[in-house]
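Notes for week 9. Today we move from apo structures to complexes. The key idea is that a small molecule is not decoration. When we ask for a structure prediction with adenosine-5'-triphosphate present, the ligand SMILES becomes part of the input, just like the chain. The input block below holds both the sequence and the ligand string. Read it once before you look at the output, and try to guess where the molecule might sit.
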Amino acid sequence: MSSATGQAAPDTPVLDLRHAGFGYAGRPVLEDVTLRIRPGEVVALLGPNGSGKSTLVRGLLGLNDHLSGHGEVFGVPLNRIRDRSRVGYVPQRHTLSGSVRSTVREVVATGQLATRPWWRPATREQRDRVTQALRTVGLDDRAKDDVATLSGGQQRRVLIARAMAARPDVLIMDEPTAGVDAASQDVLAAVLRRLAGLGVTMIVVTHELAALRGIVDRIVELELGAISFDGTPQQYAVHRARVTAATAAHPHEAHHHHHDDEDEPEGLSWLGSGPLDAADPGEDR
Ligand SMILES: Nc1ncnc2c1ncn2[C@@H]1O[C@H](COP(=O)(O)OP(=O)(O)OP(=O)(O)O)[C@@H](O)[C@H]1O
């Protein structure tokens, strides 16, 4: 999926970080992050609580401090990005407030406010995009319902549709499947699979890799504010098996790998079928 506003060449990385550091109030949380993500990749961002996953994705959105190194989104340095509409964001653990009454359709339409001032009526094309986004997440039949009447999982889908309504070239999702029941997780996974099929580049922060099997084609793991793994799901399974074996051999180091609310994939059993090796891994990650 390419944007009408895309000036960069089609092979320009979606994201290109070189030795980048991010943090808050001048204090680094993440340091020396080198990461390049190409168009169409579906990347799961894993790591224990506090390892810096949210700090990284929020850094890409300009929501915290970029402290060191270099970063570009679609070839534009992070500090020079003015148009953020190419990046869609689904925030973490966010449900829609019950205090404001809005319909599902209205909430999704707010996703276009970055590209359309609130006082200008939506064009036919913009309304069609809202309708299509609702269809993509399977909520077109709930468009007129008060969003507060939807389940937590359905509200996550509303937020994904809201992010899609501006037709971003990359979708960043912070734990889209967290805290929803298994059935809703399956529906969300199907939504992500559909987006992947449309060629949407995705960066998905998650603790629930198993829910995304067959969708994710690359895994980046953070630990203590740095990248501790970057590779395919198959390579990750091998990496985890090694870490688990090393931890068993040296139990006194086990706390380094403690993931307190993670549904940790064990061994290779979680590997599903799917476009696991679809992406060109490149040489220079
Ligand atoms: N707004 C903030 N101001 C200052 N420090 C923050 C802020 N948000 C997060 N931090 C710190 O940054 C570190 C990394 O937090 P971050 O939320 O990025 O981790 P995470 O990997 O996303 O964790 P989780 O899996 O729990 O969401 C933590 O030490 C946290 O205390």
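The first helix runs from residue 53 to 60.
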